[in-house]
């Protein structure tokens, strides 16, 4: 079974996907973390996104994996745990520009499809239902108002000790939404077969129940 969860930045996709993965006992993959890891590598190695030769060479040197650490999945870049670093504002403000690059997308999409060969999977991102797994058994498109999303992201960053402010978070989020939904290659779109979930006024538990009920009532095996 493949479950695709797409939606805007900071709309709670990852939280929902992790909760579903735990409930159903399937693998969770955070595709955004993969774009963030590539972005971190580009920043640390001064890879210019204008120079596609440099981008291709860098991509050939990047290995991304997920490993469980203290009960949660951490992103590893070339053998190093980068889970904290990829969530930093520095990476957040550059990732959308990196994610528009065709070589980056082709490499990561291939990797994402490989991950689904190993068993049932739930993956969240922007193009999972529209491009990575167009025949996914379940597709959900998650949204919430930009203001609510910015408030949630601010709390998340603060809880990790990252100093920022509401206006900065809101501006970054709108900037990313704009790039993610207007890029030429694999833009964020809601496909006709995706189920829309606006969680602006839903608690984590309410949203989980709503989505789990849909999956359990429609899954061909369960
Ligand atoms: O979900 P996130 O905020 O961690 O994603 C970070 C960025 O990666 C986001 O701005 C767009 C990009 N992304 C993408 O283009 N395609 C995906 N499948 C997932 C993320």
**CATH class categorisation:** Alpha Beta
Figure out the total of helices. 10
Head-to-tail CA distance between termini: 11 Å
Please provide the count of β strands. Answer: 8
Amount of helix: 40-55%
CATH topology value? Rossmann fold
Bound chemical compounds: 2'-deoxycytidine-5'-monophosphate
Name the overall outline: globular
The gyration radius over C-alpha positions equals 17 Å
Named at the architecture level, the CATH assignment is 3-Layer(aba) Sandwich
Mean pLDDT across the residues is: 94
Question: Quick summary of this structure?
Answer:
This protein has 222 residues and is α/β, with parallel strands linked by helices. The chain is built from ten helices and eight strands.
Descriptive account of the structure:
By secondary structure, the chain is α/β, with parallel strands linked by helices. The chain has a single domain (2-212), classed as P-loop containing nucleotide triphosphate hydrolases (Rossmann fold, 3-Layer(aba) Sandwich), CATH 3.40.50. Helices cover 50% and strands 18% of the residues. The chain contains ten helices and eight strands. The chain has helices at residues 13-24, 31-44, 52-60, 89-92, 95-99, 102-116, 128-132, 146-159, 166-182, 204-218; strands spanning 2-7, 27-30, 64-69, 72-77, 80-81, 121-125, 138-143, 195-198. The strands form two sheets. The chain has a five-stranded parallel beta sheet, with helices on both faces. Helix 1 (13-24) crosses helix 10 and helix 8 packs across helix 9. The longest helix has 17 residues, at 166-182. It is globular, with a radius of gyration of 17 Å. The model has no long low-confidence stretch (mean pLDDT 94). It binds 2'-deoxycytidine-5'-monophosphate (DC).
